[in-house]
From TrEMBL:
The chain crosses the membrane at residues 12-33, 39-57, 69-86. Keywords: Cell membrane, Membrane, Transmembrane, Transmembrane helix. Residues 6-92 form the DUF3817 domain. This is DUF3817 domain-containing protein. It is found in: Cell membrane. NCBIfam families: integ_memb_HG (TIGR03954). Its main location: membrane. It is a multi-pass membrane protein. The keyword Cell membrane applies. InterPro entries: DUF3817_TM (IPR023845). It comes from the Bacteria. It holds the Pfam family DUF3817.
Length: 108
């Protein structure tokens, strides 16, 4: 597995987690305090979540995860704050599988 597969997953895990928190605050503001609208925030989070699912599935298939683990990683994108705990653990496990070739150095 290449390093960029893990990097894509990590970036989208954090971006999705942050937008989920923004969406949660917007929902609380809308229904708790009757202010604001959540349409744009929910659409942005929805698109980002779809990209997260694609990248998490790509990482899971290349890391040969069992289906239950893949579902747990995907569910972490739906639970506020969960991605901040699941992503570091997943990244530690996946780093052991990264097989990037050694960098090419120029000869002088």
């Amino acid at each position: 597995m290449k390093q960029n597969v893990l990097t894509r997953y990590r970036v989208m895990a954090y971006v999705t987690a942050i937008w989920l928190l923004v969406f949660t605050v917007a929902i609380i503001a809308k229904y708790g305090f009757e202010t604001g609208d959540t349409m744009l925030i929910s659409q942005i989070h929805g698109v980002l979540f779809i990209v997260y699912v694609v990248f998490a599935f790509d990482l899971g298939s290349k890391a040969k995860w069992p289906f239950g683990k893949l579902l747990w990683v995907l569910a972490a994108g739906c639970i506020p704050f969960a991605s901040f705990f699941v992503e570091p653990k997943v990244s530690r496990e996946a780093r052991a599988l990264v097989t990037d070739p050694a960098p090419v150095t120029a000869k002088a």
